[in-house]
Amino acid sequence: MASKPPAAAAAAAANTTPRKPGTPSEKTKPADAKGKGATDKKGKDAGDKAGEGEQAAPEPTSGSGKFHYQNGATYEGDWILEALPANESAAPAAPAVEKANGRRFRHGRGTFVDGTYSYTGEWDHDQMHGKGMFAYASGAIYDGEWVRNRYQGKGAFRWKDGRSYTGDWVENKMHGSGTYVGKDGHSWTGQFFNGSGPGLTCHV
Asked: Which residues form a coiled coil (predicted)?
C-alpha cells in the first residue's frame, strides 16, 4: 500500500536543529583538568616546582579533563591547546581556557551537558563532528554522524512518543534512503527528500 509518513512528523524532524554548545574559549573555566605530561615523575604538578629553583615543564598542548561553564554546563573529555592567530591576543580578563599562548578547544571525544540536554561523542575544534548522540530536553534522541554541528550521514532520530527515523541525513534533514516508523508501528521505507518521503512503501 502506497503511503507516506504524517507531514507534521516529517516537518518536525526537518526543523529539529541541535543547540550549538557554548565554546570553552568564551564561557568556561576549567576545573581539575590535567593534560598529558602535566605532572613530573614524582607525581607533583608542574606548577609545584615554582619556588624550588627548578624550571617548570612546558604546558601540555593536549589532554583530558572536566570544565565547568559559568552557566552551570559542563564538558568532560579530550581537548587541545592551539596558538592564537598572529593578529589576535587573549582578552585581559579571559578565562583560563584562553591564555596568552593559546586557546583550548574541545577536540577528540567528550560529553557536554547543559541543563536537560547533552551530547556525547566526537568533537573537532568545539564542534560536534564525527559520531555522537544528542539527547534533547523533550526526550528525543539523535544518534549518528555529524558534520560541523549538523546531522549529516547515517543516523537515527527517535521521538519520545515512539516515532523514529533511521537512514540518511543531509543538513539536519531526512534525505536519502531511510525508514520512518510511526507511533502505530507502521513503517515507511524508501527515498526521503528534504525531510519528506513521497512514494514510500508502507509496511504494516
From this structure: none
Contacts of 48 (CB under 8 A, 6+ apart): none
Please state the domain extents for the chain: 1-16+159-204, 17-39+59-135
Q: What pTM was estimated for this model as a whole?
A: 0.69
DSSP letter at 47?
Answer: G
Cell 539536519, residue?
A: 172
Q: Are 154 and 145 in contact (CB under 8 A)?
A: yes
What's residue 42's pLDDT? 40
Percent of the chain at pLDDT > 90 equals: 53
**pLDDT tens profile 1-10:** 444 444 445 4
What is residue 85's three-state secondary structure?
coil
How far is it, in rounded angstroms, from Cα 131 to Cα 31? 26
| DSSP code string of 110-179 | EEEEETTEEEEEEEETTEEEEEEEEE-TTS-EEEEEEETTEEEEEEEEE-TTS-EEEEEEETTEEEEEEE
